[in-house]
């Protein structure tokens, strides 16, 4: 891409962001404070700092969709930082990448069901952990202190996996009561 095109697209993104903010009557300082506060909570829970900030920015945007340039400008971070954060968030099924219509640029979307997706996609991870723990119990011996500790950890993950399915069913019913059957996306 030519530098002139990048500058033009960046100016267009800024104008679009400013117009959206003005139309919604949002205070950009209040939004920024929320993004940083929520991101710090995500970091304390174990998420990496840049993905946490990008996720909070997407979550707090009215459309739930932003380009790399918009994210970089709002968060004052480099395109490389945005790229790395989005890669991580995509792998965690917390955001999706889509092509901006009529452009070669990508935009990133947070979905209203991102928490559901993030939790339910842990299923494969839990299964791998269970397999490794089962193997560990066999190798260390079920009657050893370490083997018993692994067996208890395995039992916890098996319990958790069964409960997640039931919990997600209850969440879908609760969500339908609160917000109707469809997604709350724009």
From TrEMBL:
Source species, domain of life: Bacteria
Protein name (record): MarR family transcriptional regulator
HTH marR-type domain segment(s): 46-105
Entries under InterPro entries matching the protein: HTH-GbsR_regulator (IPR052362), HTH_MarR-typ (IPR000835), WH-like_DNA-bd_sf (IPR036388), WH_DNA-bd_sf (IPR036390)
SUPFAM superfamilies linked: Winged helix' DNA-binding domain
Key words, A-Z: DNA-binding, Transcription, Transcription regulation
Alphabetical list of Gene3D superfamilies matching this protein: Winged helix-like DNA-binding domain superfamily/Winged helix DNA-binding domain (1.10.10.10)
Annotated region (Disordered), positions in chain: 1-26
GO molecular function: DNA binding; DNA-binding transcription factor activity
Annotated coiled-coil segments of the chain: none
Start-end of Polar residues biased regions: 1-10
Lineage of the organism: Bacteria, Bacillati, Actinomycetota, Actinomycetes, Kitasatosporales
């Amino acid at each position: 891409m030519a530098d002139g095109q990048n500058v033009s697209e960046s100016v267009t993104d800024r104008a679009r962001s400013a117009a959206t903010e003005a139309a919604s009557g949002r205070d950009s300082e209040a939004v920024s404070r929320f993004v940083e506060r929520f991101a710090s909570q995500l970091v304390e829970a174990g998420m990496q700092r840049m993905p946490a900030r990008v996720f909070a920015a997407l979550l707090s945007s009215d459309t739930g969709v932003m380009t790399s340039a918009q994210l970089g400008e709002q968060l004052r971070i480099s395109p490389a930082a945005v790229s790395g954060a989005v890669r991580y968030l995509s792998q965690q099924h917390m955001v999706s990448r889509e092509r901006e219509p009529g452009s070669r640029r990508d935009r990133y979307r947070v979905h209203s069901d991102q928490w559901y997706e993030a939790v339910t996609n842990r299923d494969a991870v839990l299964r791998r952990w269970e397999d490794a723990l089962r193997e560990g119990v066999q190798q260390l011996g079920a009657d050893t202190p370490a083997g018993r500790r692994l067996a208890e950890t395995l039992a916890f993950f098996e319990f958790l996996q069964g409960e997640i399915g039931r919990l997600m069913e209850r969440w879908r019913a609760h969500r339908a009561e609160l917000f109707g059957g469809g997604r709350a996306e724009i």
